[in-house]
Amino acid sequence: MPITLTVPEGLLPPETETEVFADLTRALLRVAQLEGNAFMTANVVGTLNKLPTDHVFAGGKPAPAVFIELKLPAIALATAEAKQAFIEAATDVVEKAAEGRLRRDHIWTNIVYAADGAWGIAGQAYAAGDLVAAVQRSA
Q1: Which end of the chain is more exposed for a tag (fewer CB within 10 A), N or C?
Q2: Which helix (H) or strand (E) covers residue 17, if one does?
Q3: Structure pTM?
Q4: pLDDT value at 139 more than 80
C-alpha cells in the first residue's frame, strides 16, 4: 500500500522524516483495523519526495505545501468514514511533524484505488479475494 509524501525541502526536520512515515503507516493500519497483521504491515511502503521550495505550489504560486498520496486495492478503506479517518490522521501526522512551518489547509491527501486484480506484490497480481485470504492467513 504505497504512500507517497511530497514535501518542500527543509519543511520537515531531518530527524522526523522516518518517524513521519512510521506514523503514516500506523495511521493506515489503525484505520483499516489491521494493526499487527504481518502481511499488511510489510506491504505498507512508500517514498518521501523532497522538492526545491520553488517547485511546490498552492494557488499557482510557490508555497509550503504537502501532498500525501495513498494507493490502495479497491477493497481497502471502503467507507467514507474510513477515508475521512485516514485523511484526518495523515494530516495530523504531517502538521505535527512540520512544527508550525505549514498551514493545515496546505496539506492535501489523495486516496487512489487500483482496479481489482491490478494490485501486485512480488510479481503476483492480487484480486480482492486473494488479498483478503493473505490478510486472514497473517491474522
Answers
A1: C
A2: helix 17-31
A3: 0.91
A4: no
